[in-house]
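Follow-up to my earlier ticket, as requested here are the two runs.
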Amino acid sequence: MGREGPAAALAAVGPEEQVDVALELRGVTKVFPGVTALDDVSLDVRAGEVHGVVGENGAGKSTLMAVASGALVPESGTVTLAGQSLQAGSTATARERGIAIVRQEPALLPDLSVAENLYLGLSADRRPALAGLIAWAAGLLADWSPDVGIDPAARVEELSAEHRFIVDIVRAVAQEPAVLVLDEPTEHLAREDVERLFRAVRRRVEAGGAVVYISHRIREVKRIADRISVLRDGAHRGTFEASSLDEAEIVRLIVGRKLDAVFPAKHAGSGGNPVLQTRGLCGEGFSDLTLAARPGEIIGFAGIEGNGQRDALRALAGLSSRSGDVRVDDARVAARTSTIAYLSGDRHREGLFPGLSVRETIGLRVLPAVSQGGVVRAGRERELAESAVEELGVKTPGAETPTTSLSGGNQQKVLLAGVLRREPRVLLVDEPTQGVDVGAKSEIYELLRAAARERGMTVIVVSSDGIELEGLCDRVLVFSRGHVVEELQGDAVREDRITAAALTSTSERETGPARSVGRFTRWLAGDAAPLAVVGVTVVALAVVALVVNPFYAAPANVTGTLALISVLAMVALGQTIALMVGVVDLSVGPLMGFVVVVESFFLTAESSSGARVLGLVLLIAVPAVVGVANWALVDLARMNSIVATLITFIALQALSLVLRPEPGGLFDSRVTDILGGALGLVPFGFILVVLVAVLLQFALRRSRIGVALRAAGSDASAAGLNGLVPRRLRLLAFVACSLLAGLGGVLLMAQVGSGDATAGGEYTLISISAAVIGGASIFGGRGSFVATVAGALLVTQAIAAVPFLGLEPAWANYLPGAMTLAAVAVYAISRHAVAGGSR
């Protein structure tokens, strides 16, 4: 463990001290392609202490804690908790042994409720019964703050960034872990919540726990930590008593050099006509913003979180509705204009695109400059990206490197490079250095100042860091309750003046209002809407059909339609399970037909009892094998689920034709009579489907496996960090889907009467339609089994109603297709509106 320069004398960690070690990492090495993230790192964290870990982005801090929490498997090294070795790569084991972690990006499941996320975040022995989940979650949130303002029944995707972090912190603290790891926990928190976090940290330490506190905010680390460890370039540079280091020394240890000037010189003059002018600008969360910004000027928007400064910035960018006058170079501009560029403070959700390279990330923001006739010119895009990387000093192996693999500071510089290449007249930046290390902060400040000075543009920044505003900005507008209450400029731009201006206007934090989302839109985005909407549509269609043709209600038609619904609903229930985990199973239709063909050899009147028993065994074995095969293609062969199940589709169809080139093998009438029987007008098959749907719905909402399935589909990576194993859940989903499709094939036997290789093929697409109409998301995480049955009823009813309505046969395809498109559009738009309203 190295010591460097004068700081070595400040280290006050004596080897003779006898202390209880809560977490011990020894010789940890972790290598990513082309990068050694950790190089033989050893670190001890004591029980009853707050251990600060600092370093630049890319220094290895988060990687080290990912190894400690089981999220990453190191090439070498050991992790020991209270003297017991931890299994590498198992987040569940680490959590059970007493490690809880709050990551830079919360590992929450967006499609699950706040309460369900809290539930999954705790070890099994601390979870309540699902029946009392909401009340339990409300209690945990109230412990954080009585007026926290988070609905435990709300989906996480509806929450603001601040509330997502609070939920993640609350569940980590509720675990009462032996070691609590906090990785940049205050980046999105308002001041009051930072104080609540610090109180929670102190309580954990007083109870004998250990806290690892990772942050770029040196002042916070100094305030809360007992000891501080410094990482640089993947190596441990020393552990020091926090009280023996000043901020300048910590910065020198982090960057390996002295930073003489963190902030560049400010704007010397204010000549020239205004670049940006606003008059009476109003929008959601703020009002009456009037300003005139000169060339080369950097203006800060400040205030207690939620008082309108971010709303004003987003309105200027055209990301929310606004009224009033906005002019650039004295020309009035529309809401969205190329003369104003915006860089979001939430780069993970609104800036970066997973999978895109540095070149593509930069090129995406300047498409007109790198394309011709609608076609991107790769050479021009590469040239522009490479020059931007060089100009802005982006540390990357090359322009083809995925942007998400870069450190936070370099990601921010890539995004900045993209917006600057658009040559805007006004640059709007939300939290320019959030999650960025000390060294990169200085570089970003210089880039912003140079852009303003050399290009004559105006830069407006929103920052929660008063020192940043003081050092960077020529002027600062302080917001309170949506109004600018004070304007500071020149020598008056000081952290204390900014803070005082905000606090003297209001002593209470106001929660930033979400974008206005109507009650009906919010309801449409919920779980109850699909069943209600489909139910109303079913009734409306029935009324129309009855008015046009009264024979539509004839008993024979009712029973026949319900029998058809039974088959479709059963396979659609299986499709819903597949969609729940984020996969699509195209093989269900041919599987139904294959089951019919196989059973035509075993369930005939001439079959022996032994053959019939074998036939019953195959009813389960065949679908199970198909389900496992689909899973193997997806999870072992790493194929896309559509491609994988299309292969199975073709294989099953071919096997059916080989076994039954022509229809044959009449089923025993006793079998078909039972399968086709009815209780009054209601077929036995429909009763079975309803029972299966109700049981599955109960399991979906009231069992751990139901929560786990939705979690795996909502975000597989986050599900893994919550101790789940998405691969196993997908196996379960594929097998369950195939078994239900096989059961659908059994019900189909009563309708076709013999082995027919073409039976079932049409059910693949309409099973997806029924599930989607019933509210299932093709991206995973959402669905309702009861609503799926309603969707099957609507699809079948629409097909059956065509002749009664006097329509052409083609309408049997048009109607289900139109209903599916309408359902996708309505649910997607409403869910997007609700999720977007949280930002």
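Run two:
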Amino acid sequence: MSRFFAANYEYESGSSSSEEDLLSSASDEMLSSSDEEGGESDDSLFQEGSESESDVESDDSDSKPYGPDWFKKPEFRKGGPSGGNKFLKGASYSDSEESDDEGKKVVKSAKEKLLDEMQMVYNKIESASMINDWVTILSEFDNICRLLIRAQQQNYGTPNIFIKVLAQVEDTVASTSQQELKGKSASRAYNTTKQRVKKSARENETVLSKFRESPESFDKEPTVEVDATTVTTSGGETPTPIFGSKKSLNLSSVASASSEAGFFSALRIVIDSRGKKNVDQVALIKTLEELMDIAKTPYETIMAYLNLVPIRFDLSANLSYQPVDQWKSSYNDIVKLVTILEQNIDTYQLSELAPTNDFIEDQPEADGNGVRQILGSIFSFVERLDHEFNKSLLNTDPHSSDYLYRLRDEQDIYNLILRTQLYLEATLPEDSKEAYLARPFVKRLDHIYYKPIKLISIMESNAWKELPSNCSSQFISYPGNADQEYVTKLVHTLAESLRQNKSGGLRKRAVLYQVYFTAFNNEFSAAKEMLINSKVQSHINNSDPSLQILFNRVVVQLGLAAFKLCLIEDCHQILNELLSSSHLREILGQQTLQRITANVGTSSADEREQLCLPFHQHINLDLIDLVFMTCSLLIEVPQMTAFYSGIKVKRVPYSQKSIRRALEHYDKSSFQGPPESLRDHVLHAAKCMQKGNWQKSVEFLRSVPTWSLLPNADYVLDNLTEKVQIESLKTYFFTYKRFYSNISIQQFSKLFSLPEEKVLNVLESVMKEYAINAKLNDEKTFVVVEKGEEITKLEEVALKLNKEVKIAKERLNPTGPRR
């Protein structure tokens, strides 16, 4: 078979084809001619032939053959280090050289290119150091540090040129004083370079000292004489693997080291590898757990936990929320860290105000009280833990048992928040306490502001039971039992403390938390006055979305508080504007996370999570609708009747969910079935009220099961019954007064089951408010109705019929009459 059709043809030593015989005979002739000429080069023969052919040469001998010599063996193809010249001369070409028409062309290896780049950095730093250009020195030093990482990843070790640059920059830093610098940028670059050179010199202390002993010997070798997969630690004792090397990283062997240098060497490896690609986070967690087993001092244990907790959170960074088992592990680690800090509070303290420590091996210096301040934030871990807890609730079906099981962990996170707050109170200086305790205060209010007092009492009691008996708070002391007085004082104290904070967002949030809590516990007047005096509503449109959602929730809760006290007009006034929106679920933050993700696709996850709340914080939307429609029923039905009776009344603006709009739609429908939904029950109650049948109206209202969501449902329904009787009396009087000249008060009392005194008071107030031409007789037993200008029932029907005729004409002839 022809080799033209053999795409994957492989040459065999035993091939006897005519082409191979021809090629082998040609090679013998060429070899014999080269021997006769005394070993002189025959390159000219092949170069002359190559001039008439293609000038393209292949640098890769293994590439696919092409051109007129595609059928030849690799030894006979022109061009490249494996070409015919090499075969004929028998010369040994290196991988870094190739023959060319004009002479030899040097091809450098990747290692040589890397060393050349480092040499260029060395020259630039040397030039910049002469003119004190510290911005360039910093930039080039960062560049050579990146080149060092690349060299170590490719198993080249630590090049000597890096040690020379390190020594050069270290000497330049030592010979330069702060007074010689001109400009803020140069001073900033100098300080940054000083810190980074100090760190690098510490890591390469042994090699750097060797260089300073004999700088000449370093020029002879390209790299430091160490293993390609190891790097010497600062103590020069334990070689530790480098991340990115081709050999597998054995962190467990490093972690099992008994010396302090071995502990911090492994910890340094974990810290440096965090965030890099292709790093096994589970292996890092396992290493840190092993490190905690061999930790001998509290400082080592604290440093191990400070790095373990963030890596646990990083493990689930790409997930929608942290899995429950990982969350439990993070919670246990944070609890252990807080326990260690509490046990060693006189010697080690974790603080955000501590100075920066460049080397984790060195413990911070002790202050005048013998306390070593470690830089870190214990509450940031608690905040992240609480954030992951909320994310898990948002991603769990609220109607499943999993949601209830997950919600049980809220007590644990609340206990940890309180415990962390007490630790911060004990360690923070007096002048910084209120500023740094604002975050724990906000988190505590987050978990209690929307709950009843009894439930808050249970949470507080359980939280204080988990603490030692000698623990106490400087802001509000725990009396031993969390009664109603303590809970009220707790919320008030936390909110007042946050109001002193400089952050405007925290102040607004504190006010809204306090108003919500006050309104939720049936103190409507105090909550309303508190909200008006705070003037939060005047600037709420410029606040962040989470604060706007909280404000809307406060308004709804304020309206419900007014309804619980049977303040119908106040409740209707508060809820009217809010319920005019067709997106009530969205403005209250009660839509699902999946729905937000679909509607707001381009926003980040944190922004989407701000727009929704966990299910147990939701306000029942059916209860809101029922309360508002009931208020609308009691206010708008008498006004509608008065208006249609010819009485001049001030029309109240109504929203989409008002009973007036529902009645208009109901009257236009051709079929009216029995009530099924919540809205249907209120609508039928309104129709019965228009007819004066208050018993049937109350029956429809009481049949709605949503009333059970109110804590004082019986009290509300009893007062609601009386309100329906009074408004039905007004509606009946407006409707039928035109047909009577005298109306008996006793008859009204029997008809609406109200005392005669109550009937008199209602009728007197109605006649005075609407200026009705009627008065009571001297004995106050009858209402004498004087005939006025109001229209009769027949005239009212005629007006409605005339209006319908006009509408029908417009529909049939919309363009006007034809001429």
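The only thing I checked on run two: The longest helix spans residues 621-644. Let me know what else you need.
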